[in-house]
């Protein structure tokens, strides 16, 4: 069979079409781009209105009307028998590019999807160093530098044309989108022998949840998946001819090499697919389909790349799949409602949820229905037919994984590959339902058209948080200027005003923005110590140690919980809902950095930047610190002793322990002046500690004299007693009573006040330093005489 | 083969090499002519190597148009990725010049091979008159025009009266003084009072009004060495007793 011509079956189908001349919608396929333009106008209007602060149901309706306007005529043409093969190819390419253009119109100013920042940074690295495989200046598990295929193409376009990496990236993904649509058509056409099935199958591929946005992002999988589909399509062509296939083999070798250098999972999927197809050919007595050499090459290339080039891939993949395994092990606890991408206020409206569920139901029923009839469907008897049918079956098995947060990512990515098989099964189901011999009734056509649109819209809903389907305000025109969200502004300020070699800790949004703005090194994301540093109100010694160990200079704190959402946090929030309904972290998250040697140098309301490089430096000598500065709280050193003086909040923050003076009570008795301090002690460390039996780590200092507490006072029930350990993360409130019998000490207390001293319990002492805290106690205003 | 060489090179292959040569020449001779670089460089990079490789690999049995487009796009990507790997392995910096020169060499070599392998030297036939008569051309052109218009309209900041405005305050030490900047991203003009207080007790205050996206930046002579904490507080004129923003440069 020639590489050039269409399949015999499709040519026969086209001939029969010409013979019967079904009128609907014959000869009008060229209208589809015009309908596409109309759909894009409606969608663009919904985006513009959304960015101008309008919201609510009408905008979403406008978006969906535009989406349906764009798709429905194409679907109708692809359903029609009269549409020619060439028109079908044009229509499916049009679907791919039109849907991609929605993503471009949604984010026309910069990349704002989470993975795009990483790949943009990798491309920037290539442009800056003119070398591949350079590590990225960010913490965490990132596989992108080891697979530079996508970034090489974008950087080449940018270097040769002078276009920005953003524009170049958009062009690369547009090419990828055209490739996948054309390759799917070739694959389905060869597998089914029908251009009609192929056209409808490719259209139905648009129903996979990632098609609208996820696979349109500037990410390595967006490029590798199209190349994977092309490789399978070429394999099928190659398997149809017993000889004269050197060109196809060479093309496949080139594709295997490129996919290996572009994306890890796709290279493994290609190797596995080639093995399965070769084995199926063996079983089906189709010798031309045996491609063990290519399968071996693909496997060897993937393994060699994994072991020799992209050596960090193992950690990355074990992290991703480890979460999946954990999620499945802990099924009872980790289950959650569908639409996982939506969190908190980012809820998908009920109507859209119903559409999505209905879409899933239709896909499931259609796939099972087709598989049940597989014996009577010739297209599913060949090795490629069996392979794609198996993919469809496995696809259904992946649906339950979407119900678990840890497994969601695996299911989401896996299902995109497996949807290649589902597309064919849905195409076959549609053609069978449309009727092969007689023109379908208007009612049946309408029903099937509705089902197609339902499934595609349902897929789009399930793949992306519904509120973020619409464009969000990113850069806003205010008067003659342009305002940007706080995260972008903070990142820009930091890059322009702070030393170039600074190391940052940041949230999902600001961290990524710092990365692509050129920060020397950034720690962000949901792994490691970052979430605890940014979200908990305590600063235990291990956090300090982590900041010191990683050489962190600046911590970017965003008090909004939406900052941890890597899809929604890049944009302006509306004034009426500035936290996106997700709320704020406790005030203590910001307050914990109100400690000596740490400065807050930037404050935009929600975001503050704390300079923490002082944690690495020894504190100043106490004699150099002026008395007035003690009001604000400092740490200074006397010899090897570090002295932390509490600020106005009367809280002393020692490593792993906070002590807060709540109240002071005095009472004159015959034995002297009873001074009772009511304090709260909090263990913010990771280990329990057992108090001294006499609580001698809290003491009163008056005029240089250390006074320890009287063991207990009978009438007080809140006296600290015993040595019950204080567990990590817990606090205990109680009192300590000191008895002053010396007149001089009483006079000093009443005239000058005193200090409550805090000494760390022995297990918490760090190194050779003794760490003590001091809380100033002003002279009591009055004391009760007995 | 001799016949093939004696013949006029196929115009499609000649066009690929010419386009590549022009793009390369432009990058070397006029790197600042960005519009020209994009006009010539983009079609060459995304189509040239792929078209040449497709022509070379499938010279004996030219693919149908859709397959040719598919292979052209895919093999261009393949050529770029593999060229990048080869250059990197050869320790050649991946500059624009090296990449475009490499692509030109690949495309030229593939075109020569294609010319040699084509038996009858027939280039893929394109019938311009038929193409111009096709309603697809006009409807697609209309779609492209609409898309370009929408992109131009949306690829710029739009007004949004409902966004949550903010003001940012920053302060950095500069010797014994502090560099303070206030930038407004509020919806309207705002009047502020800034107060810088050193641990020594010295206080400096400033009052100013900012329009949206306007910035106020000053060096404030506070005379505080590093051992002294400096607090900088920003108040709004509408709420003069409530601290609106605060930075603290601690000792």
Write a brief caption for the model:
With 786 residues, chain A is an alpha+beta fold.
What does this structure look like?
The complex is a heterodimer of chains A (786) and B (251). Chain A has 786 residues and is α+β, with helices and mostly antiparallel strands. In chain A, the strands form four sheets. Chain A has a six-stranded mixed β-sheet with strand order 8-9-17-16-13-14. Chain A is elongated. Chain B is of the alpha+beta class. Chain B is 48% helix and 24% strand. Chain B contains seven helices and eight strands; from the N terminus they run αααααααββββββββ. In chain B, a hairpin with a 2-residue loop joins strand 2 and strand 3 (177-184). Classes of the chains: A alpha+beta (786), B alpha+beta (251). Chains A and B meet through helix 2, helix 4, helix 6, helix 7 and helix 9 of A and helix 3, helix 4, helix 5, helix 7 and strand 1 of B. Strand 6 (599-603) of chain A pairs antiparallel with strand 2 of chain B, so a sheet runs across the interface.
């Amino acid at each position: 069979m020639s590489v050039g011509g269409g399949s015999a079956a499709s040519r026969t189908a086209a001939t029969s079409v010409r013979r019967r001349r079904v009128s609907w919608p014959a000869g009008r396929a060229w209208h589809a781009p015009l309908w596409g333009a109309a759909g894009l106008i409606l969608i663009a209007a919904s985006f513009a209105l959304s960015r101008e602060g309008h919201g609510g149901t009408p905008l979403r309706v406008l978006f969906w009307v535009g989406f349906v306007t764009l798709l429905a005529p194409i679907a109708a043409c692809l359903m029609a028998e009269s549409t020619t093969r060439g028109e079908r190819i044009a229509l499916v390419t049009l679907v791919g590019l039109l849907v991609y253009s929605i993503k471009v119109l949604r984010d026309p100013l910069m990349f704002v999807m989470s993975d795009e920042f990483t790949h943009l940074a990798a491309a920037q690295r290539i442009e800056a160093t003119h070398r591949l495989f350079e590590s990225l200046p960010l913490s965490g598990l990132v596989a992108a530098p080891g697979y530079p295929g996508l970034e090489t193409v974008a950087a080449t376009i940018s270097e040769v044309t002078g276009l920005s990496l953003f524009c170049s990236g958009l062009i690369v993904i547009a090419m990828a989108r055209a490739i996948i649509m054309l390759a799917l058509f070739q694959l389905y056409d060869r597998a089914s022998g029908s251009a009609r099935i192929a056209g409808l199958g490719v259209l139905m591929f648009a129903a996979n949840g990632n098609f609208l946005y996820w696979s349109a992002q500037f990410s390595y999988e967006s490029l590798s998946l199209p190349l994977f589909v092309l490789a399978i399509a070429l394999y099928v062509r190659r398997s149809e001819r017993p000889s004269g296939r050197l060109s196809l083999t060479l093309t496949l070798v080139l594709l295997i090499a490129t996919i290996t250098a572009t994306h890890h999972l796709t290279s493994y999927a290609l190797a596995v697919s080639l093995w399965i197809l070769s084995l199926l050919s063996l079983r089906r007595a189709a010798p031309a389909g045996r491609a063990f050499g290519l399968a071996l090459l693909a496997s060897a290339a993937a393994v060699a790349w994994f072991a020799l080039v992209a050596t960090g891939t193992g950690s990355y993949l074990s992290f991703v799949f480890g979460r999946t395994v954990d999620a499945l092990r802990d099924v009872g606890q980790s289950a959650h409602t569908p639409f996982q991408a939506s969190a908190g206020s980012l809820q998908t409206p009920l109507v859209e949820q119903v559409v999505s569920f209905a879409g899933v139901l239709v896909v499931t029923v259609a796939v099972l229905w087709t598989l049940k009839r597989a014996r009577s469907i010739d297209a599913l008897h060949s090795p490629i037919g069996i392979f794609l049918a198996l993919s469809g079956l496995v696809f259904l098995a992946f649906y339950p994984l979407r119900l678990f947060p840890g497994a969601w990512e695996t299911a989401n990515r896996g299902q995109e590959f497996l949807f290649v098989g589902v597309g064919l099964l849905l195409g076959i189901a549609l053609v069978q339902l449309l009727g092969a011999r007689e023109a379908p009734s208007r009612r049946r056509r309408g029903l099937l058209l509705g089902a197609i649109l339902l499934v595609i819209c349902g897929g789009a809903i399930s793949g992306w948080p519904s509120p973020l389907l619409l464009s969000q305000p990113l850069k806003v025109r205010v008067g003659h200027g342009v305002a940007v969200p706080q995260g972008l502004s903070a990142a820009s300020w930091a890059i322009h005003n702070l030393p170039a070699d600074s190391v940052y800790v940041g949230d999902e949004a600001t961290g990524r923005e710092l990365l692509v703005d050129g920060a020397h090194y950034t720690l962000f994301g949901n792994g490691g110590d970052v979430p605890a540093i940014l979200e908990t109100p305590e600063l235990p010694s291990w956090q300090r140690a982590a900041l010191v160990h990683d050489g962190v200079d600046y911590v970017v704190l965003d008090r909004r919980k939406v900052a941890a959402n890597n899809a929604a946090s890049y944009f302006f929030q509306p004034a009426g809902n500035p936290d996106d309904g997700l709320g704020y972290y406790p005030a203590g998250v910001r307050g914990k950095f109100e400690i000596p040697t740490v400065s807050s140098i930037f404050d935009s309301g929600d975001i503050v930047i704390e300079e923490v490089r002082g944690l690495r430096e020894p504190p100043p000598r106490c004699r150099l610190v002026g008395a007035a500065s003690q009001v604000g709280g400092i740490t200074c050193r006397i010899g090897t002793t570090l002295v932390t003086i509490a600020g106005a909040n009367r809280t002393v923050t020692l490593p792993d322990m906070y002590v807060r003076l709540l109240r002071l009570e005095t009472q004159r008795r015959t034995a002297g002046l009873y001074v009772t301090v009511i304090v709260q002690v909090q263990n913010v460390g990771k280990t329990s500690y057992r108090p001294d039996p006499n609580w001698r780590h809290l003491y009163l200092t008056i005029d240089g004299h250390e006074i320890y507490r009287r063991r207990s006072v009978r009438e007080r029930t809140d006296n600290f007693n015993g040595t019950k350990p204080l567990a990590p993360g817990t606090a205990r409130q109680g009192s300590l009573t000191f008895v002053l019998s010396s007149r001089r000490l009483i006079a000093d207390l009443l005239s000058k006040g005193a200090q409550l001293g805090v000494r760390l319990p022995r297990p918490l002492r760090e190194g050779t330093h003794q760490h003590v805290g001091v809380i100033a106690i002003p002279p009591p205003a009055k004391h009760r005489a007995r | 083969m001799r016949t093939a060489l004696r013949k006029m090179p196929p115009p499609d292959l000649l066009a690929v090499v010419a386009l590549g040569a022009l793009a390369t020449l432009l990058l070397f001779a006029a790197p600042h002519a960005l519009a020209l670089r994009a006009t010539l460089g983009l079609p060459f990079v995304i189509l040239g190597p792929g078209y040449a490789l497709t022509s070379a690999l499938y010279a004996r049995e030219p693919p149908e148009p859709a397959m040719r487009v598919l292979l052209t796009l895919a093999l261009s990507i393949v050529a770029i990725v593999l060229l990048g790997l080869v250059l990197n392995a050869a320790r050649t910096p991946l500059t624009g010049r090296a990449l475009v020169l490499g692509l030109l060499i690949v495309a030229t070599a593939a075109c020569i091979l294609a010319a040699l392998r084509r038996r009858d030297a027939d280039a893929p036939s394109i019938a311009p008159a038929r193409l111009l008569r096709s309603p697809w051309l006009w409807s697609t052109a209309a779609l492209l025009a609409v898309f370009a218009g929408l992109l131009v309209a949306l690829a710029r900041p739009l007004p949004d009266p409902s966004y949550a405005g903010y003001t940012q305050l920053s302060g950095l030490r500069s010797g014994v003084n502090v560099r303070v900047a206030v930038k407004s991203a509020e919806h309207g003009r705002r009047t502020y009072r800034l107060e810088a207080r050193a641990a020594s007790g010295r206080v400096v205050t400033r009052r100013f009004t900012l329009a949206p996206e306007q910035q106020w930046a000053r060096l404030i002579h506070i005379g505080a060495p590093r051992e002294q904490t400096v607090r900088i507080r920003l108040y709004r004129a509408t709420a003069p007793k409530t601290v609106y923003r605060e930075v603290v440069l601690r000792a």
